[in-house]
User: Which sequence fits this backbone?
């Protein structure tokens, strides 16, 4: 049994990936401060966790996954950065490293960190390099790559930096990831959405649709993309520009936003998962559900994590996971 720890765990994409792979695992703890995400996680995986912060936290997993807050690294944000002294949301990444450091001689065998591509930008990369140096000092070998969800079957052009740190001298080999042909987005869409709340009717948004404003100027130069075979990155909100893209009505010159169910499926969750979410966070009649959009947009694409876990568990990297007489997995170099 593989023991995992999810820091900044969101709605549990890592658990979903391991379940899909049929991997026997135990989540020894889950750390997430956002109440709605904790409620979602508990409903999906039948747990009873409460919101908690990573600060001062301590436990011993085999694989540690942390998708620390990305807003202050994001190109769409205010670029506040993630310096330890800044105390921004993104600076919480350092709490993960302090947790590992405080474990002493016993450390997780693998640490997976996911974040936005903006962390590699010239004004942000100092934080990224500091993270790599810190992990190296703790005894890890780091590998990182920008992965696009579209290369793993999901029709979402979502690029994220995945850093895989292996305890010891072996490096994670990204070339061994199993890429998949991208599925057409029609497989993820409800092609007969009629609810009025999804139609785009706000003048400021209509002016950002190329069909209605073919020669934009000034404020409206940044336009909305009409989805054909795939969408752009799903974020917390769809009712802004830019967004993941919009859908053209099949019979009328009308456009709509992606629905909540659609964005969940485009993050790798299924209809059963989403139906459970609707029980936890019911939508108000005639209104879009901001909570369900935000929970999906802040998650990690399940299919990408599946590919990563398959390599971690199938390749030994000159190390082996074995179980001692207490049931604890140990790393043998």
Assistant:
């Amino acid at each position: 049994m593989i023991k995992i720890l999810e820091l900044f765990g969101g709605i549990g994409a890592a658990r979903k990936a391991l379940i899909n792979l049929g991997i026997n695992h135990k989540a020894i703890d889950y750390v997430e401060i956002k109440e709605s995400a904790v409620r979602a996680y508990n409903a999906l995986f039948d747990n009873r966790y409460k919101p908690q912060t990573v600060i001062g936290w301590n436990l011993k997993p085999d694989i540690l996954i942390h998708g620390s807050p990305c807003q202050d690294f994001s190109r769409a944000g205010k670029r506040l950065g993630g310096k330890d002294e800044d105390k921004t949301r993104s600076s919480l990444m350092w709490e993960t490293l302090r947790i590992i450091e405080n474990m002493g001689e016993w450390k997780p065998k693998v640490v997976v960190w996911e974040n936005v591509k903006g962390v590699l930008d010239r004004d942000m990369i100092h934080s990224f390099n500091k993270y790599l140096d810190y992990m190296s000092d703790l005894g890890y070998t780091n590998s990182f790559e920008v992965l696009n969800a579209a290369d793993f079957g999901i029709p979402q052009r979502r690029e994220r930096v995945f850093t895989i740190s292996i305890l010891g001298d072996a490096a994670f080999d990204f070339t061994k990831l199993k890429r998949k042909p991208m599925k057409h987005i029609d497989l993820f869409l409800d092609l007969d959405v009629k609810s009025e709340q999804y139609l785009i009717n706000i003048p400021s948004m209509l002016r950002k649709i190329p069909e209605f404003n073919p020669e934009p100027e000034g404020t409206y130069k940044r336009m909305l993309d009409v989805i054909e075979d795939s969408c752009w990155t799903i974020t917390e909100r769809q009712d802004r520009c830019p967004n993941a893209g919009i859908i053209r009505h099949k019979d009328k010159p009308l456009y709509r936003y992606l629905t909540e169910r659609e964005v969940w499926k485009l993050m790798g969750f299924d209809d059963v998962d989403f139906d459970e979410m609707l029980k936890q966070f019911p939508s108000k009649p005639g209104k879009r559900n901001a909570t369900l959009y935000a929970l999906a947009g802040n998650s990690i694409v399940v299919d990408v994590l599946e590919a990563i876990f398959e390599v971690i568990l199938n390749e030994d990297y000159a190390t082996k996971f074995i179980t001692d007489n207490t049931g604890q997995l140990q790393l043998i170099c």
